[in-house]
Amino acid sequence: MKRLEGKVALVTGAGSMKGGMGNGKATAIRLAQEGARICALDLHLAAAEETCKMIRAEGGRAVALAADVTQEDQVQSSITQCLSEFGQIDILQNNVGILKTGGAMDSTVEDWDMLVHVNMKAVFLPTKHVLPHFVDRKGGVVTNISSIAGLRYLGTPYIGYNATKGSIISFTRNLAAEVAPHGIRANAILPGFIDTPMARDITEQNAEDPEAIDWDALDKQRAARIPLGRVGTPWDVANAAVFLASDDASYITGTEITVDGGVSCRV
Amino acid sequence: MSGPNFSLAGKTILITGAARGLGAAMAHACAAQGAQLCLKDINGEALEATADGLRADRATVRTAAFDLTDFDACTDWVQGIDPIWGLINNAGITNHGHVLDQTVGDYRSIYDLHVFAPFVLAREAGRVMRANQGPQRGRVVSISSIAATHPRPGVGNYASSKAAVAGLTRSLAADFGTDGICANAIAPGYVLTEMNRKILSDEGFVRRIENRTPAARWADPAEIAAPVAFLMSEAASYINGQLIAVDGGMNAFLQSNEG
């Protein structure tokens, strides 16, 4: 039995950099496998189309939308398009996020502003504009992608990224309290070390010689810190998103589900 | 590409405190996903009634009635089961009272059931799970409580024991992780169960909890059981060492007035 039959999900950041598998793409695919129809939204239409192609190849229904989720008018028109395509939205999966390296002393104001602008508006704007529809329908689920980096320092200076990911936790808790009377749930997923194109990209950017990165050695090094002994996959994150979107999570709101193989529960 | 695997088909799962309330709901949720059940309760008669109901739905159920604070009996029970996929530490009791009125014995009896029995069961079940084949070898889910982090007055032994459940869970995750065994805890909010019969008869209290819960209602036991079944499944294979709130938003919300 499929858990999300009859539901419609709007997934932001549903495309993947460089054609690989990211959290948003995997989540769109998993939601579709459980029966949801998907609006796959991405800054790059081709990336969103690629996700939709994979969903359709498995017999699912999906439409691709190109939008910048930090622009209010584009968010509004995306939601309108999603509604005209499928007539409803039940699930909003806010996956868009960017990452820039730097601590307090070496981050530029431009980088800081960009992180706050993208990572915070990416949860605020789609949520703000989907809520009237959720209120009308007396239900809906918002799931935001935060990070265990929002809880603590993870060994690399990402102060702006980590601060915005921490504030997504706070945003989600406040949102949950605000919208619960309307039957709407809101939760955050905190991924740990997940092998995604974005994670590889930042590792390459930080390397003196990206060509010389020994990915297997790096994975092994990271895995040694993780109780489950492996780096996570986007599918691990996607499965948690499916669960939170389903009625199995009907009493779960205002909380966080960490998907990190146990790395944040030990020193 | 296969979909997320929420199935528990063919997996043997042990559940304590399974006769009524949350434990019985968990047994039904796991059975609905195809699990084979080993149910335990101190009340053998009530346990058999629950088991018969599950068998009527074609579940495979074995039962055991003993006192979990008899740790040798815990060991014997687990050692008699092989293979084991999952352990659900659910059994719990309350013995509330103001800190000034509580004895060490009042604390110890609660800790025996809520902390030491889950430790013994996880230790013994973990030995068996480690022999399973493949990268994923088992699951432990223990029932903590919102009281672990947000106690109301007069529940010190209960609340602190449930905090210990969260601590035990993190250590199980750290110790068993490399064996492919995930350990997590659920922190339910206020649930409509037999154990809460006494507080449920206080209408003012029931309303107060509703006012302090964003969802504005108490949980049905099935709403706690479904997340437990999820954590038991292979779809939850990278969730480890977590305390997951299932409380209608209560932990995210601090009402500034009595409401």
Description:
The complex is a heterodimer of chains A (267) and B (259). Chain A is of the alpha/beta class and 267 residues long. Chain A has a single domain, classed as Rossmann fold (3-Layer(aba) Sandwich). Chain A is built from eight helices and seven strands; from the N terminus they run E-H-E-H-E-H-E-H-E-H-E-H-H-H-E. Chain A has a seven-stranded parallel beta sheet with strand order 3-2-1-4-5-6-7, sandwiched between helices. In chain A, strand 5, helix 5 (159-179) and strand 6 form a beta-alpha-beta unit. In chain A, helix 3 (72-86) packs parallel to helix 4 (109-137) and helix 4 (109-137) runs parallel beside helix 5. The radius of gyration of chain A is 18 Å and the shape is globular. Chain A starts with 7 loop residues before the first strand and ends in an 8-residue tail after the last strand. The relative contact order of chain A is 0.15. With 259 residues, chain B is an alpha/beta fold. Chain B has a single domain (12-246), classed as NAD(P)-binding Rossmann-like Domain (Rossmann fold, 3-Layer(aba) Sandwich), CATH 3.40.50.720. Chain B is built from eight helices and seven strands. Chain B has a seven-stranded parallel beta sheet with strand order 3-2-1-4-5-6-7, sandwiched between helices. In chain B, helix 4 (104-129) runs parallel beside helix 5. Chain B starts with 11 loop residues before the first strand and ends in a 13-residue tail after the last strand. Classes of the chains: A alpha/beta (267), B alpha/beta (259). Chains A and B meet through helix 1, helix 5, helix 8 and strand 7 of A and helix 5, helix 8 and strand 7 of B.
